[in-house]
Amino acid sequence: MLDILKSPILAIQDFCFLAGRTIRNVFRRPHYADDIFLQMDIIGIGSLPIVTLTGFFSGAVLAMQMAKALQQYGAVGQTGQLVAITLVRELGPVLTAVVVAGRNASGIASELGSMKVTEQIDAMRALGTDPVQKLVKPRLVATCAVLPLLTIIADFVGIFGGFLIAYFALNLTPAQYWNNVWQSLEYLDVSFGLAKPFAFAIIIALIGCFFGLSTTGGTQGVGRATTQAVVASMVLVFIVNFFMTRIYVSM
Amino acid sequence: MGDEQEQSVLRFDNVSLSFGDAPALRNVSFEMLAGETRIVFGAAGSGKTVLLKTALGLLKPDAGSVYVFGQEITGLPEEELFAIRSRMGVLFQEGGLFDSLTIEDNVGYPLLNQPWLHCPPDQVQARVEEALRFVELEHTLEKFPSELSGGMRRRVGIARAVVTEPRLVLYDSPTAGLDPITAYTIIALIVKERDVKNTTTLMATHRYQDGHFLANFRYQPAGNRLEPAGRDRAAIRTRFMVLEESRIVFEGTQAELEASNDPYLSKFVRRQE
Questions:
Q1: Closest to B202 measured CA to CA, from B13, B66, B35
Q2: Which of B54, B113, B168, B169 to mutate against chain A (most A CBs within 10 Å)?
Q3: Most buried residue among A87, A115, B142, B176 by CB atoms closer than 10 A?
Q4: Which residues of A touch B90 (CB under 8 A)?
Q5: How many structural domains is chain A composed of?
Q6: What are the tens digits of pLDDT across the range A90-116?
Q7: Cα separation of A129 and A30, whole Å?
Q8: Is the ipTM value over 0.90, yes or no?
Q9: Which of A39, A68, A251, A32 is CA-nearest to residue A142?
Q10: Do the Cβ atoms of B85 and A127 come within 8 Å?
C-alpha cells in the first residue's frame, strides 16, 4: 500500500538533493559566464514579447472590469489604484511566472532530457564537468536574474494598458490615472512584487532541470518530462504564491 | 617494464547493481592488467553499458568495490572521480557528442574542462587537430554533429576519447547500428589506438567479428592498415568475457570461448573458416 508513496517521496528527495547541490554551487567556481549570458538571452529576451503582450492585455482587461464595478459606487476615478495594486501584488508576478514556466520550464526540461537520453550528460561527467555546474547553475542564475525584470516590465506595460482604457474609454485624465497609481503603491507592494518572481524563478529553473535530468525512456520520456515540468512548475508557482501572499497580508 | 605490465588497471570485486527491482549487474568480479585487451560480449540488456558506466564511476554499485588504477572509486565524491576519469577515455554507444558544440569544441572539451590534465590553452587546437587526423576527419572541425553520418560521429567520439591520451579506453558497442564497412573502419581505429598508443582497451560489443579483429590483428603503421598478428598474437593478451542477464558466465581466451559448448556462448562465436 505504501509503495504508491515511494516514488513521489523519492522524487521529492532527489529534487531536494539537486536544489541543495545547485544552491551550494552558486558561489563556487567554475562559473561558466558564457552559459549564464546565453540562458539570460534565451529566457529573458526570448520571453519579452509574450510577457509584454500578456501584461498589456491583462492590464487593459482589469481596467475595464474594475471600472464597471467601481461605477456602481461612482468611483471610476479609482481605477488606476485597483489596476496597479492587482498587477503589482498578484497578476504581474504570477502571470509572468506562468508564461515563463510554459515557455522555459518546458524548454529546459526537453533540452536536458534529450541530452540525458543521448548520453550527453554521462559524457559530460566522464569528461570532467559537473552537469549541475555546467547546466543547472546557469539556468538558475539566469532565470533568477531575468524573471524579476520581466515582471517589472509586465507590471508597467499592464498599468499602461489600463491607462489606455482609462483615457479612451473611461475619459479619465492622465494626471488622474497616474497620480492614483503612484499613490496607491507602497514599498511593501513593490518589494513583495519582486520577491515573488525571485522565488518563482527558483521553482521554474530547478523543476525544469530536475525533470530534464531525471528523464528515462527515450524520446517518449523527453515528452513526458517536458509536460511534467510545465505542470509541476505552474502548480508550485500558485501554491508558493498563496503562502507568500499569506505572509504579506499578515505583515 | 615488467612491473607496469602487471599493474592492475581496472578491478571489479563482487559488484552488484540494480535499478529498482531489476538487477543490472550481479556479483561481477574481474581484473584487467595494464596493456590488456578485454572484450565483453553480451546480448542487449545483459549489462554491458552498466558495467562500463560503473567502471567510470557514473553509476554507483549497491554492493562490492571498483578499483581503477589501483584506487578504490566506490565511495569517492564526484570531484575526486574527475581526476581519475581524466586518465580514462570513453566512447559512448551513440557517440555521446554534444550537439550544441562544433566538432572542434567537442573534441577539445575534455582538454579545456579537465583541470587535472594541465593542458595549456594554446596547445588545445593542435591536439584537437591531431586527434581528428588520427580518425581521418580533420576536415570537419567547423561542422556540427548533426551534419555528420553515424559512423563519422562514432569516429569523432573516438577522437574525443583519445585526445587526452588516456591509459585506459572504454568502448561501448562501437559498431552497433553500423554497416559492415563502417564497422570495420571503427574497429580498425580501435586497434590503431591500442597499438600506436599502447592503451589498455575494454570493449563491449555483441558482434563476434569485433572481438576477433582485436584479438588477432595488429596495426601496421607502414601501410596504415590492419594485418593478421600471426605469431605476435600472444603479445596482444586478449581476454574475452561474456555477460548473460547481468552475470559473467564466461571469462577466458578466444580458444576457450570457441571450444565451449554452452548454447548461449556459441550464439556469439562464429568460427573462422
A1: B35
A2: B113
A3: A87
A4: 123, 126
A5: 1
A6: 999 999 999 999 999 999 999 999 999
A7: 10
A8: no
A9: A39
A10: yes
Q: Which of A135, A109, A113 is nearest to A218 (CA)?
A: A113
Asked if pLDDT for residue A40 goes beyond 60, the answer is: yes
pLDDT per residue as tens digits for the range B172-187: 999 988 888 889 989 9
Cell of A247: 505572509
- Contact criterion met (CB < 8 Å) for A122 and B115: no
Residue B5, pLDDT score: 53
Judge: A128–B92 Cβ closer than 8 Å, yes or no.
no
Asked if residue B141 belongs to a domain, the reply is: yes
pTM reported for the whole predicted model:
0.89
In a domain, B12, yes or no: no
Domains of chain B: total: 1
In a domain, A243, yes or no: yes
Chain B contact residues (CB < 8 Å to A): 53, 56, 58, 78-79, 82, 85-86, 88, 90, 92-94, 96-99, 109-110, 113-116, 160
Q: Is residue B152 part of a domain?
A: yes
Is A65 near chain B, with CB under 8 Å? no
* Residue spans of chain B under pLDDT 70: 1-6, 232-234, 270-273
Residues of B in contact with A126 (CB under 8 A): 56, 58, 85, 88, 90, 92, 96
Report if residue A227 sits inside a domain. yes
Residue at A156: amino acid letter? F
b/e for B218-243, b at 16 or more Cβ within 10 A? bbeeeeeebeebeeeeeebbbbbbbb
Q: What is the DSSP letter of B46?
A: S
Any domain includes B51? no
Q: What percentage of residues in chain A have a pLDDT greater than 90?
A: 73
**A75: in domain:** yes
- Does A119 sit within 8 Å of B92, measured CB to CB? yes
Q: Which domain holds residue B152?
A: 95-165
Query: Could you tell me the residue range of the domain that residue A239 belongs to?
Result: 31-249
The one-letter amino acid code at B29 reads S
Residue B129 pLDDT: 92
